[in-house]
Each structure stands twice: as C-alpha cells, then as structure tokens.
Amino acid sequence: MSAVQRWLDEHPPHVIADELARMDAVSAMVPFRLLDKDRALAVFEELDPVDQQQLLMGLRDRAFGDLVEAMDPDDRARMLQEAPAKVVQRVLAGLSPQERRMTAALLGYPEGSVGRVMTPETVPLPRQLTAGQALEVVRDRGADAETVYTLPVVDGERRLVGVTGLRELFLAPPGRPVAELTDTGVARVRDIEPAEDAARLMRETNLLALPVVDSEDRLVGLLTIDDAVEVIEAADTEDATRQSGAGPWPGHYMFVSVWQLARSRAIWLLLLIVAATLTVNVLQIFEATLEEVTALALFIPLLVGTGGNAGAQAATATVRALAVGEVRGSDLLRVVWRECRVGLLLGAMLAVVGMVVGTILVGSDIALVVALSLVVICSWAATVGAVMPLLAKRLRIDPAVVSAPMVTTLVDASGLIIYFLTARAVLGL
User: In a designed cystine with 29, which of 58, 230, 305, 367 is the match (CB 3.0 to 4.6 A)?
Assistant: First the structure.
C-alpha cells in the first residue's frame, strides 16, 4: 500500500485520473480512498462523467456528500445529465440547499445548451463602483466564484454592460470608475444557444470566459475556458466516431466493454451493408457488358476504392469546415463548384497513372476507359462528399452522421455506373 501511496503523491491529478479510468469501479476505489480531500476532488473532476458516477456509487454517505458538495455546479450538472435516476437523486439529496438550487437550475436548461455547462458562480460588478470598491467585492465574494479573472459588469437590473478583468482593476487608480475599465463590446451568448457554438466563439475571440445572458440580456453565468475545451473535445470526438461509421461510446476506451464497442458500430455496419446492395445491383445490370469484356473487371476495385476515398476526403473536409464555422449552409453552390474542380484536378492526375498502367496490362482501349472514368468519378465523388454534409445541415441533421463510409458506399455504386457507361461509349458495346 505504501508503494501505491507514493505513486499517488508523485503524480498529478490528470495522470491519476487516467489510471483510475482504466480500472473497474471496485479496483479504482482503493487508490482513490488514499487521496486527501483536495487531491481527491482534483482527480475526480478530471474523470469523465461515466467514471465519476461509478466512483460515487462506491463511496460512503459522508465521503459522497463531501465530494459532490465541493464540486463546481457546472461540473456536477455535466456528471448528472446522463446519470441514472438513482444517482441523480442521491447527489441532489446530499447537497446543501444553495448548491442544489444551482445544480437544478443548470439541469433545467436544454441538453447541449451553453446553460448546461456554464458556471453560475460569478462576481458581477455594479458599473457605478470604483476600481477600489470593485476589488473589495472581489475579495469578499471571489472565494465562492469559479473565476475572478473575467468580471462581468452589470447595471441595476443585472443586465450585462460588459466585462473587465482583475488585472485592469488592480492596475487602475482606486478612484477610477469601473465603467471606464469595461469592455462593452465583448462577445456574449444566450443561455439556450448550443454549447459547441459558444465554445468555438471563445476560441475565435481568444476569451478566457464568455458571458452568458438570458432573453432579457441579464447575466446568468460564464462559460469558462476549461469547460469550453471539454465541449469542443466532446464534439470533435463524436464527429470523428460518426465519420468513421460508428457511434460514440461512454467512458474510457480501454475499459469500455467489448459489447458496448460492438454495439456502437453494429448499427452503422448494418446500414452500410444495406447500402452496399446498390453496388451488387449495378453489377447485375451490367453483367452482359462484363461478360463481353472481362478485362473491365480488373479495374473495378481500383475505381471503386479511388472514388470512395475521394468522396471521404471531401466529406471530412466539409464536416470540419462546418464545425469551425468556415462554411455555412448558404455556401452550398460555392462548395459544389470548388469541390468539382478539385475532383477534376485529382482525376486528371490519377488518369495519367491509370492510362499507363492500363496500357501495360490490357491495352490502350480499356486504359482510355479507365482514365476517363477516373476523371469523372473523382469529380463526382468530391462533389457528393461535400454536398451531403451541407444538405444534412440544412435538414438539421448532424453533418457527421453523413459519415465518410456512407458517402463511400453511395459513390461506389454511382462510380460503377459511370465506369460501365464510359466503357459502352468508348468501346461501342
């Protein structure tokens, strides 16, 4: 046990949390109980919500209550938003009335909204204060706030005027009005807006904290940089899994069960295998063409793979551009024109290779079919791969759901049609 204690003392909270996430709930409780109160909280807040829930259920009532009471309200709400009802009830029952009210208020916001992940523990400054008076307010109330580096400035009805910073207050003469130190043009977001949009706005504006207001522009909280990073990480992780043709899974990859991993992928594979029947149908339609020129079959894998890859590249680029705000739904025609030209250029490059290889293997006639098909297929695949996420966005569907495997499967079938129609035209079949 002394070796475990020594290891815990020598490593930072995020490393300890990663090791605990790799253990089952029973095994993780042993080292977790060896941590002092402050380090236990720091480690606990580094864990994913699923791992937090498992640890909590193994704690005795007193340790349980102390831990959940010490958590920040936004971290507590994040943990509870997907927790079983018995966990939620136990956590809320163990909180003080004030902490319970703040947590319940955050959970009352729509799922995925910035209100769910903001911190309500702020230090708002009335705009009529001086710098010296504002510093006294920070000293009196700062211990209960999640951050004092970004300080909202409000009017008499708590409407947001702007923000100032601890640095500005500290460096200003004590008698200088806070209103003169306030940035009134700072970005702000509504509490019901998507958390991902708010987090990406923070990244674009280089803010450490983003004010969150209600429908009447009254301050309700701040989105802090640590929560914004978690929101972006979660969104990017979900997009990456969906683009690969799988669903996201809860918890640490190394500890999640094989059944959960298989379940997250199975539904997508079933959908893709149904979509792949289109390719089989196309081959049946052009069976006579294949029987007449069997050499055409040699290049089917090459053309199918190339078209699928080109479509997947375009889909991935478009989903990423949508996520970071570089492309909007209104840019559909511009994206179509752009990707069509990119596909033509790629197809022309590959056609040169296809012409040389085809001529060596089967002769110039079929090589010409392959080369022309590559140009058309690459242009078509890049266009389809870019358009589908944009159409999904317009239909209020997550663009990542239109994943690269789905685009690849659809392009495979249409690519074969292009190939065989080109062969009939060039070879006179």
Answer: 58
Tokens of 19: 């090791």
Query: Tell me, what DSSP letter sits at residue 263?
Result: H
Mean confidence (pLDDT) of the chain: 85
Tell me which residue has tokens 């498992």: 54
Per-residue DSSP letter, 222: E
Q: Which CATH code, of 1.25.60.10, 3.90.850.10, 2.40.50.140, 2.40.10.340, is assigned to 2-108?
A: 1.25.60.10
pLDDT of 425 above 70: yes
Instruction: Note whether 94 and 71 are within 8 A (CB).
Output: no
Domain 276-427 has CATH 1.10.357.20: yes
How many angstroms separate the CA atoms of 63 and 44, rounded?
Answer: 13
Report yes or no: 45 and 75 within 8 Å, Cβ to Cβ.
yes
The strands making up 189-190's β-sheet, listed across from edge to edge, are 189-190, 209-213, 219-224
Q: Which numeric CATH code is attached to 125-227?
A: 3.10.580.10
Residues 60-68: contacts with CB within 8 Å, 24+ apart? 61/94, 63/33, 64/90, 64/94, 65/94, 65/95, 66/37, 67/40, 67/41, 68/94, 68/95
H or E element that contains 213:
strand 209-213
E-strand stretches of 51-197: 125-126, 150-154, 160-165, 189-190
Domains of the chain by residue range: 2-108, 125-227, 276-427
User: What confidence tier does 153 reach under pLDDT thresholds 50, 70, 90?
Assistant: very high
Q: Answer whether 315's CB lies under 8 Å from 403's CB.
A: yes
> Got the DSSP string for 22-78?
TS-HHHHHHHHHTS-HHHHHHHHHHS-HHHHHHHHTTS-HHHHHHHHHHS-HHHHHH
Asked whether the beta carbons of 312 and 404 are under 8 A apart, the reply is yes
pLDDT digits (tens, 9 = 90+) for 265-313: 777 677 667 767 777 778 788 878 777 778 888 888 888 889 888 988 8
Amino acid residing at 385? G
Q: Which helix (H) or strand (E) holds 346?
A: helix 332-362
Nearest one of 366, 336, 342 to 354, comparing CA atoms: 366
